[in-house]
Amino acid sequence: QEAVPTQWPPQAPQVRMVAAPRPFLPTARQVARMPPEARTKRFHWFVSGMILILAVVVMSGTLVLELVPRCRSWTGYRPLDPAEATSPATRKMQVATAFSATYLVCGATVGYSFRTGSLSADTGLDWEYYLALFALNGLWLLVQAFVSAWRLPEGQHFPLSTFAEGVVAGMLPFLSDTYDTLRDVMFAGICFQSSFLVVQLVGLATLVYLAGIHIFYISSRVDSVSELMGSYFPILGAVPMEEEEEEEEDDDDADTSEGSGTCCEDTAQCCVGKLRDKVLPIVYKQLTPSKLFLLATENLPQGVGALVYLLFERGSKVVVGLSLVVP
Asked: Which of 48, 167, 223, 286 is deepest in the core (most CB within 10 A)?
């Protein structure tokens, strides 16, 4: 057989940065006229960007919680007052401020998208808006991490997984109240695009109900305030550990491993067990009576409004998917 000549030295593979899809912030008509390949490219590009942002936020927040308490001794600090931070009045004020800011930001985003003609009944907002809001939410969690680490009392620290667990509660869609707020405000904006007065009134009622039900949560239900704190302030609300407590837990884990021998013999089984111990509490929090009450009081009226919308307007992927299927 004839030998195939090889090139020496071998050439390194070429690496190129993927350009952002164009046009930037397209209108709904432009998106509708795009070929399927172009829409798929936009989807892949922006979802990849969200994953990258998520990874950067998790790594940065974890470093902040680990490094800031070690560096603050250079300038001095004021330890966190637990009584002040956990008082009912403080918690209500924090939740009210965070929800109001989220409500206004989502309203401004949807309103601008409505005005420029980029709000679509099929895709909702442009992917550029989703990416920007996702990054803004991650920045808010990083600010929380810095404040929590800076005001951490001496002799305490946060477990390594604290920030990652907070990201699950504060950033991931379908779990965070910020996502629910954006969904409801976006549904209202889609209703305002309708030519039917009834549908427009449904959009107005959605905005009024969204604000009113959160006022009810904050003013009348302590358990609902706690649930919303976990969504808007997952890092500030994280409970630090005493250094002695972690040493005792590490000793207990080591004794268990030596006694059973399972972790030494089957590392994968140990990893699965630790992952289960982290995931099950998160799943349980989605099934508590207070969480189910929040879901029912927010999603049921939203579902009724979505059904009214579908009676008058043609099918909408966003309305059907986010307001009916997911809840």
From this structure: 167
Q: What does the alpha-carbon distance between residue 113 and residue 28 come to, in Å, rounded to a whole number? A: 10
Give SS3 for 157. Answer: strand
Torsion (CA) 142, 216, 227, 47 in degrees, nearest 10: -50
Residue 8 DSSP SS3: coil
What would the pLDDT profile of 275-325 be if each residue is shown by its tens digit?
676 667 666 666 777 778 888 888 888 888 888 888 888 777 777 777 777
**Measured in whole angstroms, how far is the alpha carbon of residue 119 from the centre of its chain?**
22
Amino acid at 31: V
> Is-contact 255 167, C-beta < 8 A?
no
Cα–Cα dist 184/210, whole Å: 7
* Closest to 27 (Cα-Cα) out of 135, 122, 134, 131: 122
Distance CA 27, CA 32 (A): 9
Report whether 170 contacts 232 (CB < 8 A): yes
What are the structure tokens assigned to 54, written together? 């998520």
Whole-model pTM? 0.79
Query: Per DSSP, what are the bridge partners of residue 124?
Result: 120
For the stretch 196-237, pLDDT in tens is: 999 999 999 999 999 999 999 998 888 888 888 888 998 888
Residue 124 sits at φ, ψ, to 5 deg, of 75, -130
- Both tokens of 254, joined, read 């080591």
Alpha helices in the chain (DSSP H): 28-33, 36-71, 82-85, 88-116, 127-150, 162-170, 177-192, 197-220, 222-232, 243-260, 262-265, 267-285, 289-312, 317-320
